[in-house]
Amino acid sequence: MKNRQAFLPAVMKPLVLAVALGSAWSFVPSALAESAQNCDGVMLSSCPTPQDKTLPDPKDMLNWDQTARVIGFRNDYRNYAGDVFKHGQSTPFVRADKQLKEATYSVKGKTYTLQEYLKRQNATGMLVLKNGKVAYKYLGEGNTDQTLWTSRSVGKSVVSTLVGIAIKEGKISSLDDLVTRYEPDLKGTAWDGVTIKQLIQHTSGVAWNEDYTNPHSDFANLTQCEARPGTYDCVRKIIVGLKRAHPAGQSWSYSSGGAWLLGDVLEKATGMPLAAYLQQSIWQPYGMAHDGVWHSYEPGKHDVGAHGFNATLEDWGRFGEFVMSGGRLPDGRKILPENWIEQAGNWTTAKNSVSAAHPNGLYGFEWWNNEVPANATEVTPTPSDSLKGSLWALGIYGQIIMVNPAENLVIVQWSTWPKAEPDFSAQPLEASLMFSAIAQKLR
Hints:
Helix content is 30%, strand content 15%. It has 14 helices and 15 strands. The strands form four sheets. Strands 3, 8, 9, 10 and 11 form a five-stranded antiparallel beta sheet that branches. A five-stranded antiparallel beta sheet has the order 7-6-15-14-13, with helices on both faces. Mean pLDDT is 92; it is low at 1-33.
């Protein structure tokens, strides 16, 4: 275990402060400007709580125990260098008339309650928004409304949404653009000939080992790069050196390396780091209530596209509401392309995405199809239309935003699953069953 002061090089602390006070504040309207507080070297409008004194070592992230995961996930914004995205003028959520008091599901003949579900999921936070109102909220393990929880790969879904905005704004001309249009130095590498659409659907055909249990996998190597100075150059060296496994577009294979590159392409297209673009396009105009922090590989220049988004539970929910609206801001402007959300959930049928459990495909624009499996047996609710058309942002260890337009329902979950990626028949299946039960209960 080590404190952030011991982890960050001495030269990085001033950089983090400079970014927080500089690039992040440059977009703050004067009416919203407020005195920033120094939250262990991160300048925020208010300091998140709790602020644990001793933090787990980030290089051991894939091997943290349950206690370390709780502390590490809610202090991710302190454990790594980060870029701040400032909040807007927020309207508080209101309480739904119909509250979720109970929902149950069954697996192999055993029925579980909502409280049992939270325990089985190692849940540290849950928010249920029905018709934009709070039907249920849970915070555990000392988390509060001010806690910034890390998203892990939920951040991929945030990045893919920002790509849609960049297309609407003309900063990216088309999903059919080649990656090398924005990253010409990748010509002659395995990424040559790959389109942005193939990148966003994880069908690039570029080999990547995502195995969270293998200390020598590409993902583990990326994690080690993140735990030392020079992260951007270290990760880019990994990405540039990857080899081709399949022709582009033919096979689906989940890749945090490809997701990192998508974020890098977006930064080059917009001319700003992810945090600044998120702040300018969504966070302030939509009216998020709290500042957030994005894990940065080069403060003020490059944020990580594969994960690293840290925000409060309710702001996770507000992001889900923004997506469900099709990208409409409170002033009525729609900042996502027409039918973008439908396209994001038009699951790829590339090899490995289609299965007996998900015959329509598993993956879209960095959103998952996590409906109750079509071939599931001995479960209730049984596969039905209660999750039809839902989009799932999923991160390792159980981070979730589910957007369900048909039910006008958004569900957020924070967790510390014992395994980064358990078998689908375990926590992921139970999440789909519980979310289906909640949808039916709140109709």
